[in-house]
Amino acid sequence: MKEQELYTKHELHLHLYGCLDADDVWQLGRKAWRERTDGLEWYADEYEKVWGRRPDWKSYWEKEDGRERLRRDYLFQTPSTLDHFLACINLSIAMFPITPDNVEVLDHILHRMKHSGLRYAELRNPLPTRFGEDETRRYLSTFAKSVLTFEMKHGASFIPRIPISLSREDEDLYRLYGYLRRWLDGNPELAAAIPAIDFCHAEEGFPPKHKKEFFKRVQEDNAKSPRTALAILYHVGESFQTISIESSARWVWQTHTWGAHRLGHCISLGVPPQLMVGKSVRERVEERLDHISFLLENKSWLRKNGYIVDETEILKEREALRRRSPDERLDRTYTEDDVPRIRAFQDALMDDLREKKAMIECNPSSNLLIGNIPSPEFHPLRRFLAKGLNVSISTDDPGLFNTSMQKEEQLCSEKMGLSVEDLRRLAKNAELATASQLVRRKL
Questions:
Q1: Cβ–Cβ under 8 Å, residues 428 and 116
Q2: Are strands 196-199 and 231-236 parallel, antiparallel or unpaired?
Q3: Do the beta carbons of residue 357 and residue 302 sit within 8 Å?
Q4: Cα 242–chain centre separation
Q5: Positions of the chain with pLDDT lower than 70, given as ranges
Q6: Measured between alpha carbons, how far is 236 from 194 in angstroms, rounded to an integer?
Q7: Cα 238 to Cα 361: distance, rounded to the nearest angstrom
Q8: Three-state SS for 359?
Q9: pTM of this structure
Q10: pLDDT tens-digit profile of 23-78?
Q11: Cβ atoms 197, 166 nearer than 8 A
């Protein structure tokens, strides 16, 4: 697929630091790496824990073949786990620590993206938990001014936006969110640059039920200040190693129903359940009880959507589980008998999410590399489209995955069998679902 055939002009799921490719890290780091030795040692320690070998980071800039050595350690092109991916991206985190006033990485990525064929991109960037309120104000102002100045300078031919990624830990979350809201109230002229908050990184261990009250607070704040309303972007259903695929799919539904405006990944919602046959999971008793409660509370619409809840059986199961510790793990291995039930449950949830007009951000290469999807034919994107869901495609972390929107569209076309009309539909969905369009209105 040639560059001029790019359909997607609005990319909704990107991480700023994940846009740095190996050459960026080498080039930007060549003058500063000697000042980052503590961070680089941390990177090497974490890398060795998951990859089983220690990267020789000094050689990246001291050896003649250093750039290639860095590339081999940094690029993530072999299917593995989220932990393996994080060990790779730790190099850019070590090399370019976030400070309130440094926009070197942002400026570098913005200038590159201007020539990518995109017209709009949302580049998610974390708000460090170590920041106090003064540092947060400086950080948000610096980034917002850089983004808006760039947009003005280039005549809005490319519009960047910076969703702020917040911690999933409640103690840090509420504090940082408070800083962000007060900054928005005091800087409405800069608010356009920051239209959303994002929840990323590891999702397991953070069930969306713990964010229900937070979502409610965001909705209330949005109603009070519609000009600076924040969309909620939420990674969910990407990883389900310690919960069942049914629980993970339920998390997707609950996250949207409770207030998230766009959902990232959602693999568990649509991946073919036959891929789970023979795999085992150890789910907490509390999570299984939550799932049983969900089935009982929603049995009517689930039945209408084709999923029949065996009330007698699960009531008996609930009674037995209530006598066990909520932290106890339930061992389960999927069999062929589970496949029809899981598929029917996924279908029921997707039908309801379609009616609720949920928006899903798919990241094909990312999902194939860290989402335990063995080949493109099993990616849930085609199933989402067949179900009539609003879905878009993005690159997620293109620098580490060595991808681009052109490559993602080519993958969808050549390996997944998507038509030109499908690609146009994906592109249109993205264009209509920017964060500001979802929540902000002019008064």
A1: no
A2: parallel
A3: no
A4: 18
A5: 1-4, 441-443
A6: 22
A7: 11
A8: strand
A9: 0.96
A10: 999 999 999 999 999 999 999 999 999 999 999 999 999 999 999 999 999 999 99
A11: yes
